[in-house]
Fold this protein.
Amino acid sequence: MYWPLMALSVAFIVAYSMAVLAQPTASGERVVLVGVHVLAWAVFIVDFIVRITLTARGSRLAYVRQHPLDVVCVLLPLVRPFKLLGLLNNAPGFRGNGGNALRSRVVVSGAAYAVMFLYIIALTVLAVERPAPHATILSFGDSIWWACVTLATVGYGDYAPVTVIGRLLAVVLMAGGVVIIGTASALIVSYLSERITHRRRDEHHEQG
């Protein structure tokens, strides 16, 4: 069931992207896209209910606490594609607990999550802002630029959401930017610290 769910996750984000970016006018196209959304969401809900049902009665609450992303995916199916990125941990070169393997895993996974995070929020902000009166975010280019500036906590102010949902998503994006920048800074410090340690060890061996 794992791979069909992953395929549905991809189908959901593709259909959502087409609905927002292409804005299909033909009724048949809209029906297909809505059908993909509804089918994928329904399967996500059924999958979660089945897994809860198969869990021992006394352990169901613990299961929910241990799988918060699954709960969020049921409420917000747009989050589901993030589970796809978990496959990166099984890629060659990312296995092991050594410093280089761990850093590679964190860097690649972090970059993938950041790109997905930025893309989904930019897409959703465009969807809610474009029809609003006095909106400044009217194209995907505008929304991507706004999302990048907000994620980096620069805040030029040339584009800004005017709807309540858009502003809430901006807060989420700002919080994500702080986490991403903090993680990147920690990785750089870790790498430099390890290089300095190796350098001192080599110098000590040379002197000895």
Observations:
- Residues 164-207 form the longest helix (44 residues).
